[in-house]
Fold:
Amino acid sequence: MWVVETSEDSAPRFWWGADTISGSDTSPPDSADVSINLQGAYLSAPLSDTHTHGCVGIAVSSSTEDMTRLLEAYRGMGVAKVQLSTVTLGGAEIQQILRAASSVMSENDSLLGIHLEGPFLSPEKKGAHDEALLSTASRPGIQALLEDYLDVVAAITLDPLSVDEGVIGWLVENGIIVAIGHTMATYDEAVRAFQEGATVLTHAFNAMLPVSSREPGPVMAAIDESAYLEVIADGHHVHPSLVQMLFREAPGRVILVTDSMPAAGQGDGDYTLGSLDVTVSDGVARTTEGALAGSTLLLPDAIHNAHRFGVPAKQAIAAGTTTPWEAYGREAPSLSPGHPARLAVWSEDARLTHTIHDGVVIPRK
Structure:
């Protein structure tokens, strides 16, 4: 039996169990059965990265073997649930990935689904997406692309100016979360997209119009329309003061994501992201044109960074654990007795120290 003692708000509390949570109290259980004792400041639901293109040298692709290896790698890093993200690809390649994901999801509950980032993005804000593969979407076209995979596609990032009227509505009606990103949309245009049913802003501040005095842009539209906002807290994509501002202006609606690419967990060097060549130097990934190409960030580090940037620890932890579940309409794992033992243990400064997955205690590497 494992026991976790937390000291949140200077009030000791204990959780214990094996493959399920057996109990929680201000006093510890009978120590005779305890084999593992852990101490931390906070206990949370497991981590969930809802925007990642890969890590440890593996990219999201149509290989079921690679998908499974990716999920194992994330779990080893403390991330129990993952929404794998594509880059801009052709329709046939997208469907190949969706078929592979369907197969993996039938056997592995770590995969929440696929997030399609592209191909319906703005050429002016393409970032690290292959412009030759970008396209616009009609309702019949997107229906033909996705109607056989509605149980696999969890979310799609799109430019509202690159899709016809009715596309956002059809996606939402079919249970797909619509995120706005890689767009030249103004504040008013973004507001309309949120009112049509979009509920997430993809990597706030990046690949979109900035906030300015007469054009607040998509970030302020998302804040005003009560949407969720992704942010990449690596210190390169967004200034720390703006990360702190998002948590202040959109409490409970900030999702910490990595937007990681295969170099995450690897190191500097030359990589590919989709069809593009990417160079990682000092931990920063860029295309040959100089655009940021995802990140080398790991989600536990994003949470610690957010706290280091001035975000209270509990808020930073929630942004990488429970808020992603809420944003995508899922019920977050419970910390109550009787539920599966899938937990994360944190230090006072929001560093992940251990995870517990179905009773197995895994130290942070």
Notes: The chain has a mean pLDDT of 94. The first strand starts at residue 2 and ends at 6. Residues 91-105 form the longest helix (15 residues).
